[in-house]
């Protein structure tokens, strides 16, 4: 038997039917199918992939991140039952970044590595000057431990920028989906350039893939990655992420779930990394996961 290929998934969502029942009927779209840690691990292991380090990221449709904590217990049970199959998996989590929810107790869990702000398609003008910098938010930032990060997801570069400018500079930040750059505006979009400039000045801002919410052609995504590297450095990029189970659609209305399963998502980020490596001579492995360990330790 060939050895399994070890993989990092820096952005994945695990949740059960019980989690989904809590939000049934409250969403304007059909809910995804349950996506359990066990099913995900088994699917990858069975095709020769060994998930080594996983980050269960807060899912925006859920009111809290209790599913993240439940996944820690699920993995412990799997490893106790079958250590040979599941023993090599390390699981961490990123919880909801809400001051009332992200308490000292929750942030003190040894497997919690960060907290996530989700703004989706919020326009820049929807972010007020003090929205993320009032007393409650400042107290929350103070609860983050040195190894933890704040994770931001917004579809507009300027929305990301407005949030970033309100976060204390000592806090490490991860910008999701490569800043959610837009191929129709190209890599010279002023707001995107300003976001990269702010990240460069701060020196502790990472940009994370997978990138297929930017575009579904690896060579197009690679142009944005190369731009990020030019602006903030190769040590501030993490591409190896699946964002499974791929909720939502691309710009043409095609469901991401029809375009990518976890295996194909890994193939996508591999292709992006290869294009970038050819342009920059940075090793593919470094582009995929080289800096993720610094974000979770």
In short:
The chain is α/β, with parallel strands linked by helices and 297 residues long. It has helices at residues 17-21, 37-46, 66-81, 83-86, 104-107, 135-143, 157-164, 190-202, 218-232, 256-259, 262-280, 284-289, 292-295, and strands spanning 5-12, 49-57, 90-96, 112-120, 149-154, 172-175, 205-208, 237-238.
Features:
13 helices; alpha/beta; eight-stranded parallel β-sheet; 297 residues
Secondary-structure topology with pairs:
Blueprint: E1 5-12, H1 17-21, H2 37-46, E2 49-57, H3 66-81, H4 83-86, E3 90-96, H5 104-107, E4 112-120, H6 135-143, E5 149-154, H7 157-164, E6 172-175, H8 190-202, E7 205-208, H9 218-232, E8 237-238, H10 256-259, H11 262-280, H12 284-289, H13 292-295
Parallel strand pairs: 1-2, 2-3, 3-4, 4-5, 5-6, 6-7, 7-8
Helix pairs in contact: 7-8, 9-11
**What is the 3D shape?**
globular
Number of distinct helices? 13
How far the N terminus sits from the C terminus, by CA atoms, comes to 33 Å
Q: How big is the Rg?
A: 18 Å
Give the mean pLDDT. Answer: 92
Instruction: Provide the structure class.
Output: alpha/beta
The ordered H/E elements are EHHEHHEHEHEHEHEHEHHHH
Spatial order of strands in the largest sheet: 1-2-3-4-5-6-7-8
Q: Strand content of the residues, in percent?
A: 15-25%
Q: How many beta-strand elements?
A: 8
Major sheet: 8 strands, parallel
Q: Outline the low-pLDDT stretches.
A: none
Q: Give the helix level as a range of percent.
A: 25-40%
